Amino acid sequence: MENAKIVMKKYTMVLVLLLVTLFFTWVTNGKMLLPPNVNNLIAQNAYVFILAAGMLLCILTGGNIDLSVGSVVCFVGAIGGTLMVNSGWNIFVCILVMLVVGGLIGAWQGFWIAYVRIPPFIVTLAGMFIFRGLSNVVLKGLTVAPMPNNYLNLFNSYVPDVLGGPKNFNLTCMVVGIAGCLIYVFVIIKSRMNKVKNGYELEKLTGVIVKGAVICIAILAFTFRLAQYKGIPTVLIWVGVITGIYAYITSKTTAGRYFYAVGGNEKATKLSGINTNKVYFIAYLNLAVLAAVAGMVTIARLNSANPTAGTNYELDAIGACFIGGASAYGGIGTIPGVVIGAILMGVINLGMSIMGVDANYQKVVKGLVLLAAVIFDVVSKREKNK
């Protein structure tokens, strides 16, 4: 009974995601899972995955957030779009410039937060106003469009079917899905063998098999739907690489564990010899660079740079983190959890859009989901400490 409770608690958001997906599939008469809509789920929410991966590191340090990322997305996109469209700069030079600008913004905000110890809320709130205003200055209140085709090919196109499948089915996409499942199974088996070799406690084999089967089925179903549309979106590759890197950093590296340590107990972490100021600085520097990447993705998806781009992006990223299991107090949270949170938000947005729900009511639902996730976190901690 106790094990069942632990499993239910561990996979609560996965079950919620499954139920919400089934609900919207039912009320939309299956439209939710049509290939174009599955593709839109990725294309429209790519920025959430990218920003949430960086936002998690900030939240881990003690529940801190960055309110400026939406404005940074707009500002970086405005600079890149202006240079590419109005000045005709090489796209790779523009990409480098956008990354450097993001890094400078992160260093600026990280300095005040980490070394002067101004509260992150205040620094990033100021940044939200500053960079939104600068975006309008750069764009002069106008929309810059369209983006060069070779730039769109990097962020807003599809991987061609190099295996030469049928006309309406991208065989390459399906093969990638199958390969992904095989790699996942190999990693699970290798991890279990290492635990046996080192004498670590093992998870029940039944649970491992069931979890592996569910994940593989989800991967195959997802890639099958994409294969029925246009194949693998290039933006999915960017999202996959970024979330994969950050999943490895947070779970397998010493530097990644520092963020958890600072959020768990900053004083103890400092006494153990870890430079906590540097941890804060890296968290905000990192997030601003990811905001620059999100800016690249955004102007490619919109095929333009405009003064309103990135509005409320910071709230979507924060919501994905908390819904995905990150603690409002810091020290708890994972990249897989963040991915689940981002997908859940995307499914809710897409499902309500297909149903024709008013945009204002969509915001109400998202707010209630976020509140429920945080309440769950607080109540769980309270019960654990009893």
What would you say about this model in short?
Keywords: Cell inner membrane, Cell membrane, Membrane, Sugar transport, Transmembrane, Transmembrane helix, Transport. By secondary structure, the protein is mainly α.
Topology of this protein?
Elements: H1 2-10, H2 12-27, H3 35-60, H4 69-86, H5 91-114, H6 120-139, H7 149-155, H8 171-198, H9 205-228, H10 234-252, H11 254-264, H12 266-271, H13 276-302, H14 313-323, H15 335-355, H16 359-384
Helix pairs in contact: 2-15, 3-9, 3-10, 3-11, 3-13, 3-14, 3-15, 4-5, 4-6, 4-13, 5-13, 8-9, 10-11, 14-15, 14-16, 15-16
Any overview of this molecule?
- GO terms for molecular function: transmembrane transporter activity.
- Helices cover 76% and strands 0% of the residues.
- With 386 residues, the protein is mostly helical.
- The chain has two domains: 2-151 and 241-381, Orthogonal Bundle (ABC transporter involved in vitamin B12 uptake, BtuC); 158-232, no CATH class.
- Helix 3 crosses helix 15.
- It is globular, with a radius of gyration of 21 Å.
